[in-house]
Amino acid sequence: MKVKVISRSTDEFTRERSNDLQRVFRNFDPSLRTQEKAVEYVRALNAAKMEKIFARPFVGAMDGHIDSVSCMAKNPNHLKGIFSGSMDGDIRLWDIASRRTICQFPGHQGAVRGLTASTDGRILVSCGTDCTVRLWNVPLATGMESDDSSDNSAKQLAAYVWKNAFWAVDHQCDGNLFATAGAQVDIWDHNRSQPVNSFEWGKDTVISVRFNPGEPNVLATSASDRSIAIYDLRMSSPTTKLIMRTRTNSISWNPMEPMNFTAANEDCSCYSYDARKLDEAKCVHKDHVSAVMDIDYSPTGREFVTGSYDRTIRIFQYNGGHSREIYHTKRMQRVFCVKFSCDGSYVISGSDDTNLRLWKANASEQLGILLPRERKNHEYREAVKNRYKHLPEVKRIVRHRHLPKPIFKASALRRIMIDAERKKDERRRAHSAPGSIPRESIRKKRIIKEIE
Amino acid sequence: MEQQEAMGETEKREREKEFICKRCKQNYTTSSNNPTSCRFHPSFFVCRRHDDQKRYYELRPEDPPYAAKFYDCCGAEDPKASGCSTSFHVSYDDDLNLQNFEPVKMGVKKEDGSLCKIMPPEEQEILDEMDIKVKKYLRGESANFEALRDKKLKGQLAVKEELYGKSAKAAAKVEKWLMPSEGGYLEVEGIEKTWRIKQEAIVREVDISSSKKQYDIVLPDLGPYTLDFTSSGRYMAVAGLKGHLAIIDMMNMGLIKELQVRETVRDVVFLHNELFFAAAQKKYTYIYNRDGTELHCLKEHGAVSKLQFLKNHFLLASINKFGQLHYQDVTTGLMVGNFRTGLGGSDVMHVNPFNSVVALGHSNGSVTMWKPTSAAPLVKMLTHHGPVSALSFHSNGHLMATAGSDRKIKIWDLRKYEVLQTLPGHAKTLDFSQKGLLATSTGSFVQILGDFSGSQNYSRYMTHSIAKGYQIRKVLFRPYEDVLGLGHSMGWSSILIPGSGEPNFDSWVANPFETPKQRREKEVRSLLDKLPPETIMLDPKKIGNLRPPTRRKEKPSKEEREAEMEAAVADAKNSVSTKRKTKGRNKPSRRAKKMQEVVERAKRPFLEQQKQEEELSKNKKQKISEQSELPKSLQRFVSKKAAS
């Protein structure tokens, strides 16, 4: 007879000294953990609730301007600096970490409409309604935080006066050209007091301009004649033009897929296009209830942020039809400009109420350094939530956002209007000869024509 | 001459054609290579504790702890010890790695000429074992993607499936290191039978600490006793029918608290940890803490005969002598469910650990299964002719054992609700162990049944008789130990059943060596993961799955309905018996009348249904017309009473 029974000696299974760690034994046998799926579901539910509890996206406001903020620019070489220009001609450089003005750039007589920094981050270009383009030397990052009382205004390098007021400016991502938009598109060099090149296509004002991040010679503009035009600096004439039903306020290229760009439109939606194939939008991003004023892509290219005239900021997936996040506060007025920070973890908005606001890109993200156990826990929560995101209860909690009453009402109204329009269309189709009214996809509907 | 020289060279080369074996580092020639020529260790010389947690090598005081090295395969501690396995030599030229070597010679030529791979026996065994282990962690078959039309979804699911496979394989691989303890066993030689081996013989063989686990406590005054273990098996609560309650730490056999409630105690059960326990007393159920302080008196339960605790849901389930089943949430005190079984009082109740469904055995021989969110039983099955006397569930949830007064013990497959096996014999109480042994007992006799063929065919494994005249009230296996606890009329005892318990515990699931701090942490964690009562269902894996598409029942058309009615009428007409009646009762008028009655009766349900539907549609129309009477802008001024 051979016999063995389970026998555990206490000192094999407990710690020897009191400052040792407790010994942990694992057995991953599924039969020891009953109702695993139910437990996981409850954890997913808790994770979804916890995410809601910890969703505190607003980090802080940066006040200092005395008129509404009209434009912002990121410094590609300095993570925590951001430039902002306001309607009274004031340009400021902010330190995001301390949320204070580092320096001011006085000089503009009228509103500043466009701001951009050169690729190396040394030179800031601004333009405005006073028909000037001004180049500024950006103070170095070190020793900036010294004192804000003495000499915090920078000297300008150059000021070029031109024939018309400017609406926007953007710097080439690799090179020393920049483009301004106004009555026409002008291409400037840092060292020349006159544009090196000018493009004109139609008589209407060009209101935004953005260089392609991948191909430095390509730029996209939008004009008040409801057009989006793509120019190539190597050619003497513009390449493509697309006319939509409503005006496009701003354009942003996807930094990871540089052939794609997204246009922020007056009709409350954003349209993602492939620059090579403009007859159809790749995706329509709907949710805003008023004109979208500005748009900026995250450096990851997976999501973008939009600011709207309805006083909210929304974050969209690059391929998602609806926003994943909406930010609003009582004091925030019409949003004129938004930017993703260069590390993709913050969003900065400038609005009519003269403030810049700093938001977290991921509302429930924990700031500061995470311990490995904390990080693991976050990852686990994210994973279970992702696994059970289709279940109604989890889905409801994850999707729910509190909306301000005007937005809620406006979105309900919009829904009714869209439904009515659709219904009318259907009826019209039902009462006309079959095939006489073709069905048009929503991605094509808002496009009038494309001109080569 | 030159030719001769050349010949000599080739001879030399042939003679020199000796290889060095890459395992045993010996020289060999191909001709002398046979299956026993290479002695080697299939595993490495390692530095870790032996499987049974003993070091073969006694450490001297000045030795570092890693000095205890040994071969992982055979346990030899000398690094130069000759190999424990033999096989063919393998040279460095043979382009085979050590892990998976298979000399060409070992292949077996099949009849069709192809060479079929044959692994050395140990390797094959290892692979087979691995497969079994992986299967355990896979939690079922993978989904069938063939039917899917969505390519994107198919891809995503395939990636997921691959991940599951990987994690299962990883879990199976680390089992060797994570789960060092081996389960108990009892092996016999020759004509010995396992059920003839006495407890005394086992106690003589096992180590001292294990032999202490076999004991009898005789308390003749306050019995018969019932008992309960915590989920880690560390603590035991005992309750004597005449009011004796006690909690015992089984690790050091220390009595933690003992109290005498001076009234009948029918059952005792631990709540989520050893700090709280509930006792079903004469009139009410009480919750005590481990100091013996009465915390709650649960009056709503009535005179409870049996208690069970659902530890995932924090629900205390009770059945009282009127056959009422109560579920009470012990964290909030909320009465989650209160159902009348309608089958009379019962003291046979057991929770299925797999899905937390409560099963009740009734005196009419039926077993009903309940969940707290439905007033009707989920399952009602007739198990015995005569009262059900005991009931227990296997931990995998697929097996149920019932015992009835009809002298039968039945083992049921709960997936099909069919009897797998019927064994003769009485059983007052039944219990399944973690490893699937089934303890049955009647009078003073305990029998352990085991499933050794792997085909759910339970046969006798061990037997034990306590002193004659003692009546066993409850048998309960101690979790994570090879111990069976017996509560009987003269106290309680504990016997050794090798191979009954799970040898490896998980510190995060149930830890017998839990410290107070760990206990506190676990309490918080389990409260966070507390399941809502709705998650109790027969198939707990259904959560998160899609409901299969149900076809909407179409309304039968008018013609179909009429045809149905006619068929029913024809049936009814045929069924009228044309038996000859006594005089005066067989008039044609009466027969006609009777026929008419039958036809009317057959028609009635169809006509009633029709009428009902008409009424319903009429109501609907009326409602619509009422609303449309006024223009929309004025409808809100209509008084609500008038509208309804």
Explain what you see.
The complex is a heterodimer of chains A (452) and B (644). Chain A has 452 residues and is an alpha+beta fold. In chain A, 17% of the residues lie in helices and 36% in strands. Chain A has a five-stranded antiparallel beta sheet. Chain B has 644 residues and is of the alpha+beta class. A four-stranded antiparallel beta sheet of chain B has the order 10-37-36-35. A four-stranded antiparallel beta sheet of chain B has the order 11-12-13-14, with no helix packed on it. In chain B, strands 15-16-17-18 form a four-stranded antiparallel beta sheet, with no helix packed on it. In chain B, a hairpin with a 5-residue loop joins strand 15 (265-270) and strand 16 (276-281). In chain B, helix 2 packs across helix 3. The longest helix of chain B is centred in the C-terminal third of the chain and has 42 residues, at 588-629. Chain B starts with a helix and ends with a helix. Classes of the chains: A alpha+beta (452), B alpha+beta (644). Strand 1 (2-4) of chain A pairs antiparallel with strand 9 (185-187) of chain B.
- Name the pair of protein chains with the most residues at their interface, and give those residue counts: A-B, 40 and 66 residues
Strand content of chain A: 35-45%
Sheet/helix structural class of chain B: alpha+beta
Please state the CA-atom Rg of chain A, rounded to the nearest Å.
27 Å
* Broad shape of chain B: globular
The total count of strands of chain A amounts to 30
Q: Which shape of chain A, going by the Cα principal axes?
A: globular
Question: How far is the N terminus from the C terminus of chain A?
Answer: 93 Å
Number of helices of chain B: 10
Helical content class of chain B: 10-25%
Walk me through the topology.
The complex is a heterodimer of chains A (452) and B (644).
Chain A: E1 2-4, H1 10-13, H2 36-53, E2 58-63, E3 69-74, E4 81-86, E5 91-95, E6 100-104, E7 112-117, E8 123-128, E9 132-137, E10 156-161, E11 168-171, E12 177-181, E13 185-189, E14 197-199, E15 206-211, E16 218-223, E17 227-232, E18 240-244, E19 248-253, E20 260-265, E21 269-274, E22 283-286, E23 292-297, E24 303-308, E25 313-317, E26 323-327, E27 335-340, E28 346-351, E29 355-360, H3 372-387, H4 392-399, H5 405-430, H6 442-445, E30 447-451
Antiparallel strand pairs in A: 2-29, 3-4, 4-5, 5-6, 7-8, 8-9, 9-10, 11-12, 12-13, 13-14, 15-16, 16-17, 17-18, 18-30, 19-20, 20-21, 21-22, 23-24, 24-25, 25-26, 27-28, 28-29
Helix pairs in contact in A: 2-3, 2-4
Chain B: H1 2-16, E1 19-20, E2 27-28, E3 38-40, E4 45-46, E5 70-71, E6 85-87, E7 108-109, E8 115-116, H2 121-138, H3 151-178, E9 185-187, H4 199-205, H5 208-211, E10 215-218, E11 225-229, E12 235-240, E13 244-249, E14 254-260, E15 265-270, E16 276-281, E17 285-289, E18 294-298, E19 304-310, E20 315-320, E21 324-329, E22 335-340, E23 348-351, E24 358-361, E25 366-370, E26 379-382, E27 388-393, E28 399-404, E29 408-413, E30 418-424, E31 429-432, E32 438-442, E33 445-451, E34 458-465, E35 472-478, E36 483-488, E37 491-496, H6 516-528, H7 558-575, H8 588-629, H9 632-635, H10 640-643
Helix pairs in contact in B: 2-3, 7-8
